[in-house]
User: Fold this.
Amino acid sequence: MQPSMFNVRVPLDARDETFLMNTITDAQLVVSSDVIDLLDRLAAGAAAEELDREARGAFELLRENGFLVDSRDADRHNLDTYLGEVKSDSSEVNVTVLTTLQCNFACDYCFQGDHGDYNERADRMSLQTSARVAAWIERELDRVGPDKFVLTFFGGEPLLNLPVMYDLAERAWRAASERGITLYTNIITNGLLLTPDVVDRMLPFGLNGIKITLDGDRDTHNRMRPLRGGQGTFDRIVENVRAVAGRVRIAIGGNFDESSVDSYPALLEYLKQQDFADKLSKVFFKPIVRAEAVSGKGIIPLTPVAAKDALNGTCMTSLGSGAGKACDSCSVLDDKLTMLRAETRRLGFATHDGVHNGPCHVHKAHAHTIGPDGSLYACPGFTGQLAMSTGHIDDRHDSWRESARERFLRLSPWKECGDCAYIPVCAGGCVAASYSQLGDMNVPTCHKQSIHSAVVALAHTVASRS
Amino acid sequence: MKIKVVKKASSVKPSGFCASYVDEPPMNKK
Assistant:
């Protein structure tokens, strides 16, 4: 037996102990230094038969939790099995519906650029298409037979097309109920048009949570996320959150760059002071990929190896325009992300740990995004590229869609990641970023530093509890 | 040798967090 390549160690220096995690089994231990010595001896070729009774007990516990494997081939086999199970998992059908690509915001970092006549051209789902989407969902639920159906409304701004959201939510709820499937309906919105009436209308149809974005404190948010006319939006969004908090789970997200990140602690303090603070189910911020890349001193930015390809799809950062470079956020902003995560926790908000990430939906056979015209995609990032459509709600058989579907099913960017311990929680990074920035969705975009920082933070959180 | 088990090995698969978009598919658990 030998240590698994998916083991991660974080020394807890103050305690002469080490946090151990296996990223494929998700087992987590805090061990004394002699256990680390045991792992090193086994890595050097020591046989189990040579171990004394105490070491043998530790050996068995490490083996049971995946920290010891027969060989590197066994690690590879376990990885293939794990990723295969993720891909074919039929316990959950996940559908993200873009009811419209129109948006009432003019976010500073949005790929839609100067926002001129975008809304005049942006697609919008009709009620007729909504009915056809519902019929496709019924066929999909019958075909897959899941326990759980996760339906997410996204855009554009989904609240700009309320009739379709209401219609589809009701039809989906009926379809899930008739089949004994639990429905979780989510809305990702900028929050400007969110009202108690909207929530009350959706609650009977499995409404589970609403995600709203605040990009820093009041002034910063108003600069980053103004209306198309330039007016600020912070106060109205906060009042809308206050009006619906307690009726439904609310998650707050935020997107920071070097110009806005320092305002986030003030935002967190502001949120903590609000009467709805304890009603927020999650608070999580993430870095923005910008056209003008941010690099730390002494860091040489990676250079795209192929012409950049604009995705122009759903609501997303300039990543969708092919701007930025792979690993942009693995420099200056990475440290900021770690700081913000710690600050979020310190104020008592639940947040994403930054470790348990993927593989994301693009690697799941039963996760789909549906564009306003009924085209199916493997990921929201590709919805502006019809050639990347993997199917259609009408079940029409277009050879080019079949070809795209095959390409997504064969995705394996992690094969270029060598023996990286983080493959099970990353799977090679964002496929949309690889496509738009590197010209090939089957090559990895690496954020190892970011994930490792999150593991270190997790280790110290665990240590502080024990 | 001291081993504190914080979390045992699990076969539960990740929900698929997206760190790249302005917004990620959220909250697919109760």
Summary: Residues 291-308, 320-330 of chain A have pLDDT under 50 and may be disordered. DSSP finds 15 helices and 14 strands in chain A. The radius of gyration of chain A is 23 Å.
